Amino acid sequence: MKIKVKDISIISTGIYTKTSAVGDVYYLQARDFDEQRKLKVGLNPNISGSNSVSKHLLQKGNLLIAAKAGDFFAAVYHDEVTPAVASSMFLVLREVKQQVILPQFLAWQINHPKVQKQLTAGAKGTNLLSINKSTVGELELLVPTMDKQKAILHFEQLRNRERQLSDRITALKDKVIDQKILNALTK
Q: What is the pTM (predicted TM-score) of this model?
């Protein structure tokens, strides 16, 4: 079945606020995510909670979509750090209808090259490309059954694990070759 993002979630924007060295709320920015679109370890709370911040607190299962700078990646918030809010760099998909689509599957689809091309085509700006709520809301996605969503996500996990192992094997081979070269120099 095809469905528009605006029909399966509430789309809001992140907030802009000043950070400080000490705080009690995590202010998530694009740089807080690694290449696998996971939150980095060791983040510190860097804004103070207030009434204006509290209504923007992230809930488990919210989806963050980077809306600026041309890499429109999506990441699922899993309560890794709490309480947390998204910076204005992000659009936030709240109340994702999980009986229709899993947040992880929605993120996988948004991160897919085909959807990324659609987002880039709908982006505005000359120096700094950005997307808005209506661009994301109008995205029409194919949503398979829950079983197929889970199978696709499982396959994706296996593919990512294979990449990690392959990278590790390459690094170890490089180490062995470097050591052999060094050994040959000393003989």
A: 0.86
